[in-house]
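Handout, section B. The chain below has 708 residues.
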Amino acid sequence: MPPFNHPLRRPLRLTLLAAVAASFAPLAAGADSSAEAPAAAVRALDPVVVTGSRFEHSSFDLPASVDVLERERITAGQARVNASEALVAVPGLVVQNRQNYAQDLQISSRGFGARSAFGVRGVKLIADGIPASMPDGQGQAATFNLDMAERIEVLRGPFSAIYGNHAGGVIQLFTRDGQGAPSVEASVLGGSDGSWKTDLSAQGKPGAVGYVLDASRFHTDGFRDHSAATRDQAFAKITTAPDADSRLTLVANGLRQHDTQDPLGVTFDTFRRDPRAVDPVAINFNTRKSIDHQQIGATYERRFGSDNLQLSAYAGNRKVIQYLAIPFNGLPIIRGSGGVIDFDRNFAGVDAHWTDVRQLAGGSLSTTAGIDYGRSRDDRQGYENNFGTKSTLRRNELDTVTSLDPYLQTEWQGGNWGLTAGIRRSRVNFKVDDRFDTGDSRNPNDSGSVSYSRTTPVLGLVYKVTPALNLYASAAKGFEAPTLNELFYSPNGGGFNFNLKSARSTHLELGAKALLGSDTRVNLALFQARTDDELVVDPSSAQGRTSFRNATKTLRQGIELSLDTAWRRGFSGRLAATALRAVYDQAFDDVQAGKRLPGIPRATLYGELAWKDAPSGLSAAIEGIANSKVYVEDSNTGTPAPGYAVANLRFGAEQQLGVWRLKQFVRVNNLLDRNYIGSVIVGDRNGRFYEPAPGRNWMLGASAQYVF
């Protein structure tokens, strides 16, 4: 570790300083400080959540780790392009902007999902009750519309089991409803590396129907060479109440992102020489990705006294063309060896559940029974990448994935006790129809199918020691089936891997939630997860085709701490700290027991000290982010990505001029201009594990809202 006066420690000290100041400021303000605490800040200490229980519930009384990010934290001084902007403040999560818009964010929860080379797996994504994850468990955080986000709920630990094929957690986005007089808002921002964004939105509820409309364009030349991207997003939401006891919500969103350059990872030597550089193969093969994604959904809710029925349905289409750096090597024409991925996916699903509420044994009993169905179908082709152009067909197949999950969850609360129990039966089916027939005996037909199923129970208990202190315990069995991408190839260059097993885990959690006065909340959680048949990158992956295998046993043990506080004169603070030991608990092949799981830092820390003066509309905040080193492959012999600590600064201003509301902000990230590796590509077979992060960078934005 570097000495305390080493330059790396300076931003870490800022992080700790912000955290300590946030912790002790309410005490310094005096016992009567709560009288002057902002009402909104007080209410935010115990938000109502639906994630984890599927009905409105006080987060303080839920026997699970749930954090809520309100609209202010999502939008204040942010570009609203990447969910990592806000999720970095949640303990247990590692969310990295990879500086590569061709591969989406890298999200892991308590170490689950860290191995994903692209997209999100191991963590379920949901937006307005509609899944943003496919039936196989792969999701895309880029489809979240952050401009219209009202709040984000983040669930970690055992209660994730009630959501099925996702062992790590659930991230659920809720967008705003149209309210009040109609208004329109335009915003624009610009910043380092040729980045800019424009956004235009409208909302209102002039009668019985509320509406929200939004369209935006984001562009960046990219911090690294060959990393430019342009993203167009559109969003629409309509809410109405057919009668006094029902509510209907319609949502539609679209994402268009063409010719997004993919800089790939780099070797450690390349990073040290030039953090902006790319491997020459990215240029030679013009690695890039184009995405067209559209989705619609509808949710109908109806109350029957204290009971409730909810029906949701969704459908969409996703088209992707991706150019990879896989050269033609003169081998026989076999399935899957091309360097261009081209698929057209149609997907759809439904969820229906009934919640019954009644009195029992001096308490309230709430029971939810439901069924969740999803289906996706890929018309998938693969071609040779002839130095940036699509060439010979190398793959042609139909891939179908279906999931059918009935579930039951019940909660009883009475006196000082609360008991929650749930069970879900998950089943995921994969079917491959191989239509690539070359007549070559070395190219066998890879058609086939495989199914994975698991019953996942969950149990939670909470005891209210005092009105301001809750203790809880929870336990669950987890289940994580391979995704379609993880099943594509067998070891040593074979076809579809029908022998890959699902990972099975046992989760335990003990926690405490405390309210200190009316202005401070502290959450503490101790957790453990033991996993059998953990899915890992296979070292025999070859010819540019990454295959996966099952390891033996893994163990994750950790502690999470979060603190939120607000006090006089507009000051507030946030602390989120995680310590996580994630290791292989049993040796396999050349990996010794005790080796750390790659892609997972041992410790993460976020601290924020903020100030806002309501009368003047001025605000400011300093943020600190620190992560420990990260190993890049299973044996831990490759050079780990070093730990880092960075500090960010933001300022904001607001003005109300009649029917106009104006906002401005400026943000400076990586204030001390540190060179560091922001994320890693676990198990990359070419040794290009590292994805450098930007040095000092800035962003300036303004918006104007007009209310009719």
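Note. The first strand starts at residue 48 and ends at 49. Compare this with the example in section A.
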